[in-house]
Amino acid sequence: MTRKTFPILIAGLMLASACTTAGRPVPEAPARADLAAELIRLDRPGPPKGPEGACWASDITPMVVETVTEQVMVSPERLGPDGAVIAPASFRSETHQRIVQEREEIWFRAPCAADWTVEFVATLQRALKARGYYLLPVTGALDGQTRDAVHRYQIDRGLDSPQLSLAAARELGIVAADRDRL
Fold first, then answer.
1. What's the rounded Cα separation, in Å, for the pair 128 and 123?
2. Distances in Å between the alpha carbon of 10 and those of 21, 23, 26?
3. Which of 76, 72, 70 is nearest to 91 (CA)?
4. How many whole angstroms separate alpha carbon 83 and alpha carbon 100?
5. How confident is the model over 126-159, as pLDDT tens digits?
6. If 0-12 CB within 10 Å is exposed, 13-18 middle and 19+ buried, where does residue 42 land?
7. pLDDT at 17
8. Which of 17, 60, 98, 115 could make an SS bond with 111 (beta carbons 3.0 to 4.6 A apart)?
9. Rounded Cα gap, residues 122 and 143, in angstroms
10. At what angle do helices 118-130 and 144-155 cross, to 10 degrees?
């Protein structure tokens, strides 16, 4: 590139960017949904009491256990009269576990069973494919690969479940949003 073409190239890029926005603000990318905010934890069995016609799914969150290994001093170092180390300190390893999070049942809104048609699953697969989560051909079958893609999509958004949540389906654009949430 010569010195003369560089200013022309810059001017062309500026003109092209001005034409595409035409003075309008560029829309922001939609924010990722926090699916963990949709979770409901109950102190009783069964689905939550919810709006008329609402469908619910449940899953079990795994127990999270942390293993901690510590070095515990058995005997301190011994120093001579001149301050030199006669015997170094001795240590032993102690390992213990603690529960960080108990196993529990969680509930979340989900598409109703009647919605799970071949067309709905194919739309789900296409939406996941467009976002890089589903890499296989679109079949319309709710198989292990589709559930795995749903799980990976949702875990990135705070829900560790292979069952599609209604909030994830809304974010994917495959079900209509609630009017009262807009």
1. 9
2. 17, 19, 21
3. 72
4. 44
5. 999 999 999 999 999 999 999 999 999 999 998 9
6. middle
7. 53
8. 115
9. 11
10. 50
